[in-house]
Amino acid sequence: MPQASTQQTSANTQPSEAGREERLRYSRLLAQRFPNRRAAMSEIINLRTILSLPRGTDHFISDVHGEYEAFQHILNNCSGVIREQIRVIFTPELDAHQQADLRTLVYYPREKIERTRLDGALDRQWYLDNLYRLVRLARWIAGKYTRSKVRKAMPAEYAYIMDELMHATRDEEKVRHAYHQSILESVVDTGAADDFIEALANLIKRLAVDRLHVVGDVFDRGAHADKVMHTIEHHPSVDVEWGNHDAAWMGAACGSLACICSVVRTCVRYGTLAAIESGYGISLRELALFAGATYSADDAIPPFEKAIDVMLFKVEGQTYRRHPDWLRANERVLLDKMDLDRGTVRIGNRDWPLATRDFPTIDTADPFALSAGEKDVLQGLAAAFRDADRLHRHVAFLYEEGSIYRVCDGNLLLHGCVPLREDGSLQDVMCDGTPLSGRAYLDFCDRMARRAWTRGDQDALDWMYYLWCGAHSPLSGRVVKTFERAFVSDRAAWAEPRDPYFDLANRADVCEKILAEFGLTGPECRIINGHTPVRAAAGESPVRAGGRRIIIDGGFCEAYHEKCGIAGYTLVSGSHDLRIKAHRPFLGIEAALDDNADIMSESDVIRRYDHQVLVGETDRGRELRRQIADLEDLLAAFLDGSIPEHL
Predict the structure, then answer these.
(1) Exposure class string for 278-305: b at 16+ Cβ within 10 A, else e
(2) What's the rounded Cα separation, in Å, for the pair 502 and 496?
(3) Which terminus of the chain has a lower count of CB atoms within 10 Å, N or C?
(4) Dihedral of CA 31/36/42/44: which sign?
(5) Tens of pLDDT along 371-414?
């Protein structure tokens, strides 16, 4: 497995007296948890054992965009991992239809049981057969984990029973078959079978994937981002690399008026206002009343849409005026460049015809000033976003488990881009008066995003808006033509120049320079991106730069299915190989229950390892070895009397 480049101290180097005292001080703290030699040795043995286990499966997904049902199904089938394991274990014992039945039972246990009951096929033998199959499947998938980890993943009320059923060798299974059979019969006879099947199915799905990586854009376009966030929030092992759409919602929760307007506008444009009103309980009634009373219903642009557009471009203009050092900032200040008498707007060196001249709230002497009515509406919206408890819980989770980028196991996980110049060098961006580029710039963006949440000062809030749509935002990386798309009918004005990264990072040498910027060297290191849909129908590949860069935004959002030709990519990294999965559209839960319809996936192996990768070869393994070294220091302190043992 790839490793981050690190500087290691020679084993012969003797630590200084100050260093020894520092180690001893840490050992004293560690002794509070491991108070004697026996406890320390036991933990060392446990950690060393974990190092020799196969590494768990990592599941990478991006650009969910509120498509809850498809997202939930991808999690349920673990991008085909469950299908593959069932095929391995039960072929030729079960035919294709029986395997499909078992898969659906794992994906949707409660619903499948109820459907079987309605079909009149639910009897004692059905329960016993499927309980036994689920136990075998769970036992197989649990094989790469310690018994302790598996037990922790079990529901407390069934942990003892599951532990008895699952942890038996093949010889023990033969000897104890009658005992295990009696357990299953008791589960059925006591009426606990439905609940026990659901618990087993959830355990299987939990163990099939060790960690979920969401590479940005949970929000917008689809109507149920709140449900997606609820699922992610309760996932046992997950991290999130923020996308630009996530940044907009995070900024809105922090209090950025520009982000609030952007979030509302996006929901208006995609017809998903339920995401705001039903999902998070934010009322848009005052905005609707203001729009209806202010704008003409006969205009080319509906009043509700125009009202939020105008407010957005006013606060956007105010934002960019506060940051004239942002690259291309002047290009996005456009309200003052409208000539309403002629019905045109000056963009660059050209005049473009406006789609409407109905702008009653714009003062030509000060186009960016909010009218009294607009101020009232925005104050109300800001209060509503501030008081939306469910939104704040979800955003708090994004801050706790998320970041601008993540480095793990030789992979750089990043939603958008690392801004580059045309020659492939790192692009400088002015950050509080200091030009920053590469990793330093992304770290600055991460700090500013967290400052917006903790302090909420205007400068940090402005940066949240820049992260959403700034020309050199690492989450966006393009000049977002919101104004043109709203008010200029000629689509020629809509073209959005992209950061050179999106083309240059298709070259292996550029990827290697970027990876080195983040401490990643070696042939197995990769960039994993979302953000830019892969047009598979046009022959585009998600694997670029000779495997150095993988794009997993393949059109998960329904709005992109026609353009992309598929319904999203996911990446699965296991102990034997790294695979990209191209998914077909999900037909819905009813189809899954009626016909065992699964998301059909085409799997391409990007890299097959020449041996089974162990935990010891991963970042987690390196952390475990550091823990072992700390425990060995503690053990030495116990032995030489530096720290007293407590029995």
Answers:
(1) ebbebebebbeebbeebbeeeeebebbb
(2) 13
(3) C
(4) positive
(5) 999 999 999 999 999 999 999 999 999 999 999 999 999 999 99
Residue type for 456, please?
Answer: G
C-alpha closest to that of 573 among 601, 598, 603, 545: 603
Distance CA 194, CA 371 (A): 60
- Report the alpha-carbon distance of residue 445 to residue 460 in Å, rounded: 9
Question: Whole-model pTM?
Answer: 0.90
Residue burial 487-516, b: 16+ Cβ < 10 Å; e: rest: bbeeeebeeeeebbbbebbbbeebbbbbbe
Residue-level pLDDT at 190 = 94
**Per-residue tokens: 97:** 């239809």
**Rounded mean pLDDT of 519-526?**
95
Closest by CA position to 314, among listed 465, 463, 488: 465
pLDDT value, residue 174: 64
What is d(CA 511, CA 516) in angstroms, rounded to the nearest whole number? 8
| 99, pLDDT greater than 50 | yes
| Beta strand residue intervals within 206-337, DSSP E | 211-214, 238-241
Q: Which of 479, 577, 474 is nearest to 527 (CA)?
A: 474
What is residue 13's DSSP assignment?
Answer: P
> What pLDDT is stored for residue 582 in this prediction?
79
Domain boundaries, the chain: 19-53+617-640, 78-208, 225-494
- Give the list of residues 6+ apart from residue 467 with CB closer than 8 angstroms, or none: 242, 244, 247, 251, 445, 449, 473, 474, 475, 476
Rounded to an integer, what distance in angstroms lies between the CA atom of residue 111 and that of residue 416? 38
Instruction: State CA 459 to chain mean position distance.
Output: 26
Strands (E), 273-401: 338-339, 344-347, 350-353
CA distance linking residue 539 with residue 239, whole number of Å: 31
Beta carbons within 8 Å of 178's beta carbon, 6+ residues apart = none
Give percent above pLDDT 70 in the chain. 91
Confidence at residue 540, expressed as pLDDT on a 0 to 100 scale: 84
Strands, DSSP E only, in 291-428?
Answer: 338-339, 344-347, 350-353, 402-403, 405-408, 411-414
pLDDT digits (tens, 9 = 90+) for 288-341: 999 999 999 989 999 999 999 999 999 999 999 999 988 788 888 999 999 999
Checking if the pLDDT of 9 tops 70, the result is no
pLDDT at 538: 78
On the CB side of 265, how many CA atoms lie within 13 Å of its CA? 24
The first and second tokens of residue 543, run together, are 């694997």
More confident residue, 60 or 75: 60
Give DSSP secondary structure letters for 583-643: EPPP--HHHHHHH-----EEEEEEEE-SSPPBGGGSHHHHHHHHHHHHHHHHHHHHHHTSS
For residue 510, the one-letter residue type is: V
Contact 583, 554 (CB under 8 A): yes
Question: Taking all residues of the chain, what is their mean pLDDT, rounded to a whole number?
Answer: 90
- In contact, 445 and 404? CB cutoff 8 Å: yes
Phi, psi of 483 (to 5 degrees): -60, -50
Q: How far is CA 622 from the centre of its chain?
A: 24
**Would the pLDDT of 500 be above 70?**
yes
Contact between residue 81 and residue 58 where contact means Cβ atoms under 8 Å apart: no
